[in-house]
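Two proteins were folded this term; both appear here.
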Amino acid sequence: MSLIPDNTCLSQPGESKTAEDPGVIHPESQPYPQPASQQELLQEYTQLRERFQRTTNALASAAHDLKTPLAILNGYIELLQSEKLGPLNERQREVLRDMNSSGQRLQHFIQDFLTFSVLETGELKMQFEQGDMNGCLSEVCRLWSHRFQEKGLALYFLANDKLQPFPFDSAKVQRAVSNFLENAAKFTPAGGTVWLHAEAHMWERRNASKPDVSGERRRQNLAHPNSIRISVSDTGPGIPPEYHLEVFDDFFRLPTNENQSDGMGLGLAIARRLVHGMGGKIWVESEFGAGCKFSFLLPLKPSPMASTRGKSK
């Protein structure tokens, strides 16, 4: 049952408005502009892309200019912490720890800006080399183990012996997984658990020109896997279903997030671009209050055009 506001004007049965009625609005008197031609739309789109390109380049330039003075500040902080210039009391050590933490966080923001700008302009190229995915992910876990211990979180990764070597960009994979782990470490409360897992997967890509026969495609299972699925699961607060696509957008942060100051909303966006650049697929499975599972697929045989897919359209 709907309620009609008092100030809503409705015609009574039997009433009709004539051309002389001032309440009648003729289509030709509407102030709306005529639809733009295809050429005008293309010109406006080109101008917007150029403006966005200039803005992206300006951000990258500003971030690059901040790297050197920030590195100097961080160097002086580390020098003071080493007490080579003199002993420190406990209060001074605490202040320097806070300064070091803030400096590292700022350095991370700057690196995200630089990575985002390179990915957005399409200048980052993928380097596919034959490698061991287990070794790649083990190295990521080693780098993040200390961070998880500090936060009181358990991080588990068990190597999968069934994974065979295949060509992939190890550095890009590690960056994407690191962004997943950073997200999990940020939002999972102390005492929680994070799992990193990799397995062979049958990526069933549908082809509109060749519809699959019912039942035949399902029988393939993992007899001939064509991809690797990498997942990071956590016991955090979860993400509402309505935000499952938006979390990968540039500069997006959940409106329910209480840690708004901990990031700029670029981590998952960068992971999306990196995965797409390698010809993969990325998504999240989650329910609010029931943790998250971020996953991405990488083809065992990367496409020659894979490196052009990371840039947004």
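Next, the second protein.
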Amino acid sequence: MVLLVTFVCIITIKKKDMSKETMSKKAKSKVDYLVSKEEFESYVRVQKIGAFNMLDPRARAMTELNREQYFHVLKNYGYLEDLYSIS
């Protein structure tokens, strides 16, 4: 019985450690490659026009962001909006 409890405790500790590691990787990925305020504003301008779904390649072409920048904005929109205080 004690062995089982020890095993469960070890698994629980490992899961907590992994989740902290995953969280720090996610937080780090948000700051690994930041777009500038002007680049984010370019994205928001196209978004406000409303002519395209923002997943449409034509929307990306209108922003003049490269693929990496564009998908960074898509994934981290809320973070960047808070960072640059754009409404």
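Confidence is low (pLDDT under 50) at residues 3-24. The longest helix spans residues 2-32. These notes refer to the second protein only.
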